[in-house]
Amino acid sequence: CITTVSATMFVLPALISLWGKRLGGKNLKAPAFGRLAEFLSHRWIIPLIIGLSALSLIPYGLKHLKTEANPIKLEAKGLASVAANDTLIKRFGMSTDYLMAIAGSYEESDSIAHVLKKIDGVNFVEGIHIYCPPIKQQEYTRGFVEKIHRKAVRMRYHPANREFLLKEIERLKNNIIEMKSIAFLSGLDRVYENADDFIKSGFLDSLISTVRNAEANQIKNASLLFFNIAKPIIISASNPEYIKLEDVPQTLRERFVSKDGKKFLLTIFTKGDIWKDVGNGSIIDRVKSRVNVTGMPILIRVLWTTGSRESKKALGLVFITIFILLLLDFRSIRESIIAYIPVLLAFFTTIVVLALIKLPLNFLNVLAFPLIIGIGIDDAVHVMHRYLKEGSVNLVYTLIGRAIFYTTLTTGAAFGSMLLAKYRGYFSFGAVILVGITLALIFTLIVLPPLLRLVKRR
Asked: Would residue 455 be called left, alpha or beta, if left means φ above 0 and alpha means ψ between -120 and 50 degrees?
């Protein structure tokens, strides 16, 4: 803006002096605007009705205007990643994004996890405590592990039943598919890739076909071989000895334990879509009230709450600043208020229009409102300055009607180009600006003419 003003002041005069003669004699008057303004200036009841109608709709706009804090809703429609995200949420009933907390030990990690699980809206909490539970918890479960271990030692071979074997292989396949999906949500890339490769290899399908067509003797030999392999594994897995942190695989320790071994990470998954919760913060705020957490949803929540609060302050500051500038320019409270009326009506009517077309406020388009005030006030200021010199409503709008129309048109074209953007955040920003400055022009043409009768020519 500053560079544009500087160029207009210092560069444009030189260009006009060089090529301005070619523009001489060109008729830039707009008699239609002049006649319209003159007509309305003598029939103040029409602008009054229009202005009061706009004011009467403000409560409707404020009541029905929605807000959208979900950043996913600003993305372009039809994105495969967004569709996959929605599918996973519907399929598993939990968010694909998560919150994070830090504990000072794995005992504290387990304690925090127990606190978080009791919070309404939390699905599950993952951390090192799952793979290396505290000693007290291991002592509680040790009796069950010993029982499994004793049964595994006493386990005897029994010939397999074909139908039962087919049923168990099919169940194993479904479990691996489920494991693959959970690994994707949890960020366990190696587990996901291995499970995916195993399913795609078709081994289990081939095994099902082999068992279905195999002879009874072959099934008996295969089941005996499986028993001899599986029994030692079950005995080893049911080892009742305490699990130590060193026993946890390196890949899991690197994920949940810091390099110095003093910090332990927890990931918190919520029920449903956590991004829908950003605006009201019900689940996020409940978690924050119990545990210090971080993560992208927390940052977006802070951005939304802070932005909502600060945008109101910014709007108030813009209103006050522009009114002060009008006072310094016109040196009259009456004339400053009259110049302000069209853009104020445009500002509040924009809210009504957004409510009617069901375009919610979001992170981006809320920034358009200060621009509407700053850009929309230009038309009324130009009209006021010209009227103070000419003293004729018809002449003023005839001389500058085309200018304010084309400045609005070019500005609208610039911001309106955002309506072509696939990113819905840019689309909504451009739509709000376009609606606001168009309404500012309309109210300058309709409401301002009769008000000019109250202005004393100087």
From this structure: beta
